[in-house]
Write a structure and sequence with these properties.
Distance between the termini of chain A: 36 Å
Strand content of chain A: over 45%
Radius of gyration of chain B: 14 Å
Oligomer: heterodimer
Helix content of chain A: under 10%
Number of strands of chain A: 11
Largest interface: A-B, 22 and 23 residues
Largest sheet of chain B: 6 strands, mixed
Strand content of chain B: over 45%
Number of strands of chain B: 12
Number of helices of chain A: 0
Number of helices of chain B: 0
Shape of chain A: globular
Chain lengths: 114, 114
């Protein structure tokens, strides 16, 4: 099992460019999440998908869109990147939507927007 | 809504010394509590979690945490720190009712001196 995989690992964008961050899990999990991590801010939830076919906004959704392509894949799109979106992005998954669930995280995508 | 505070941004210990990382939560009912570790350049990995039963929880890598309802705390401990424990540690609280998605603290960075 690869667990949760993310591509790319690193990316540099210019302001206004667009890109899609890819995430896939091979654990047959139902729920998937996108977080951003900034120094001193911990993890902040951008979007999540409780199950295939559903997506919901998290704490900081502005400037992002998501697609739950199928049960395995959950992508995050930046339509017009801004320097404020420079961050480390983590994808995570859980088997279900019970509060005791353990989250499994990918290795992260480090994004720099110039 | 639940919230979590990690009062210490950085903690420095010597290798072989004991460790305690603090976590305080705010939630009206019984919380679900987690500690995750993030090694440099990696995603988060679950160390341990509490949702019922014995208030002293054992985790991986020799870590333990104790749930103290009267103090709204869930502090992480290790009797003897190894250099490989240098990492970022995140406490998270989940709600037994309402949103199932945990809220993360801002993290504590552990520095281990040889």
């Amino acid at each position: 099992n690869a667990g949760v995989t993310q591509t790319p690992k690193f990316q540099v964008l210019k302001t206004g460019q667009s890109m899609t961050l890819q995430c896939a899990q091979d654990m047959n999990h139902n729920s998937m999440y996108w977080y951003r991590q900034d120094p001193g801010m911990g993890l902040r939830l951008i979007y999540y998908s409780a199950s295939e076919g559903t997506t919901d906004k998290g704490e900081v959704p502005n400037g992002y869109n998501v697609s739950r392509l199928n049960k395995r894949e959950f992508s995050l799109r930046l339509e017009s990147a801004a320097p404020s979106q420079t961050s480390v992005y983590f994808c995570a998954s859980t088997k279900g939507t019970v509060s005791q669930e353990t989250q499994y995280f990918g290795p992260g995508t480090r994004l720099l927007v110039l | 809504a639940q919230s979590v505070t990690q009062p210490d941004i950085h903690i420095t210990v010597s290798e072989g010394a004991s460790l305690e990382l603090r976590c305080n939560y705010s939630y009206g009912a019984t919380p679900y509590l987690f500690w995750y570790v993030q090694s440099p350049g990696q995603g988060l990995q679950l160390l341990l979690k509490y949702f019922s039963g014995d208030t002293l929880v054992q985790g991986i890598k020799g870590f333990e945490a104790e749930f103290k309802r009267s103090q709204s705390s869930f502090n992480l401990r290790k009797p003897s720190v190894h250099w490989s424990d240098a990492a970022e540690y995140f406490c998270a609280v989940g709600a037994s009712g309402g949103s199932y998605i945990p809220t993360f603290g801002r993290g504590t960075s552990l520095i281990v001196h040889p």
